[in-house]
Specification:
Elements (H helix, E strand, L loop, with lengths): L5 E7 L4 E7 L5 E6 L3 H9 L5 E6 L6 H8 L3 E5 L15 H13 L11 H33 L12 H11 L6 H33 L4 H7 L7 H11 L9 H5 L4 E6 L2 E7 L5 H12 L9 H7 L4 H23 L4 H20 L5
Parallel strand pairs: 1-4, 4-5
Antiparallel strand pairs: 1-2, 2-3, 6-7
Helix pairs in contact: 4-6, 4-8, 7-8, 8-10, 10-13, 12-13
């Protein structure tokens, strides 16, 4: 239950903060336009009838304000924007109205707070997301280069692209076929971007490998590595994106990453739609990609045994059980002639549950 006298809603932006406060005793509404300075916000809160509680929406401004207010003894909630209740008929949206709406919902205790990472966890998450951005940049850079060659009728038939053999073909065979000086300059620029982005990705991979080997996430990463498709990079990314796995259960983790079907039901009618795609999109993509690794026949190879050697015995047994179960699920989907993409998402949802069971497993 809400116990403070005054509820405060803040609509925080980069250069301004719209503030609204409701006195629970008198019903009086206080409003102000503040600067993003933490001291300015605290000074305004100090003039309100206390004690006060504050809420603002999670967004690009991060958790700095939350940490500052918590350090001075003011309860602060960082609210999930997607979970805010809004009147269906409200067609006017302003910063001031948003602040008042937040203050009212906080007073009613109708807000859903996000999990606040520690400073170290947020730094690790930034590193993982930088690597994800680099992966996207590399994919776009490679597409630009390949499509430039395709427009000039130059196609590679020597096997998989972006291998050492393909790189040699680009330099020795593809480039000489471009006769225009302008086109050759464009090729050089695109090729240089590919090389620079790939080098940046490799540097980030090394940094993540080092952090995964010696950090607070190391035990979780090693347990997750007992599952097929969960390498060190994937396991570390899942560990930092999910954070506190104990917030979930084996059933609810799939909902958090948006891998459950949408539902439209009323009365006796029940309709299931595509997956919700809510929550953490990065974690969802990693799980969907990892699920494809469970389609081939399950064999314990050297890579898997090396990862098992780093994990406790209970995690190895649990991982082996999960690998067998997920492969059998693939076999059943194939026998039922399910579309592979549909089957993969279903496997990814179950894989999320297996990851949860390993993450919360005692490291003993």
């Amino acid at each position: 239950m809400f116990t403070e006298r005054t509820s405060v809603g803040l609509d925080v932006h980069a250069r301004s903060v719209a503030a609204a406060a409701i006195d629970g005793v008198t019903g009086e509404l206080f409003q102000a336009k503040l600067t993003p300075s933490y001291d300015h916000v605290r000074s305004w809160l100090g003039d309100l009838p206390g004690p006060v509680a504050v809420a603002y929406e999670a967004g690009p401004t991060g958790f700095g304000l939350y940490r500052y207010l918590s350090s001075v003894g003011i309860r602060c909630e960082v609210v999930a924007p997607s979970k805010l209740q809004r009147p269906a008929g409200d067609r006017v949206k302003t910063d001031a109205k948003d602040a008042v709406h937040l203050a009212r919902l906080l007073r009613l205790d109708e807000v859903t707070s996000v999990a606040i990472p520690t400073v170290e966890q947020e730094a690790a998450r930034d590193l993982v997301r930088a690597r994800e951005d680099c992966r996207s940049d590399l994919m776009r850079a490679r597409h630009r280069l390949s499509k430039l060659l395709l427009r000039h009728g130059i196609v590679y038939y020597g096997g998989d692209a972006w291998t050492g053999k393909h790189d040699q073909w680009l330099r020795t065979e593809a480039l000489p076929q471009l006769t225009s000086r302008s086109t050759r300059l464009t090729f050089d620029a695109d090729y240089e971007t590919v090389l620079a982005t790939k080098a940046r990705r490799d540097r980030l991979d090394v940094a993540i490998e080092e952090m995964a080997a010696d950090s607070e996430f190391t035990p979780v990463v090693r347990r997750l590595g007992c599952l097929r498709g969960i390498s060190t990079l994937t396991g570390f990314a899942l560990a930092v994106e999910i954070g506190d796995w104990h917030r979930f259960t084996g059933n609810s983790i799939g909902s958090f990453v948006g891998l459950i079907p949408a539902e439209y039901s009323s009365g006796s009618s029940r309709t299931l739609g595509p997956i919700t795609k809510t929550g953490n999109g990065h974690a969802r993509r990693l799980l969907v990609e990892a699920a494809w690794h469970h389609r081939p026949r399950y064999r314990v190879g050297k890579v898997m045994r090396d990862r098992w050697d780093l994990a406790p015995a209970a995690a190895r047994a649990r991982g082996d059980e999960g690998n067998r179960r997920l492969h059998q699920r693939w076999v059943k989907f194939i026998e039922r002639r399910k579309r592979s993409t549909v089957a993969d998402v279903a496997i990814a949802r179950e894989l999320a549950g297996w990851c949860w069971s390993l993450a919360v497993l005692d490291d003993m």
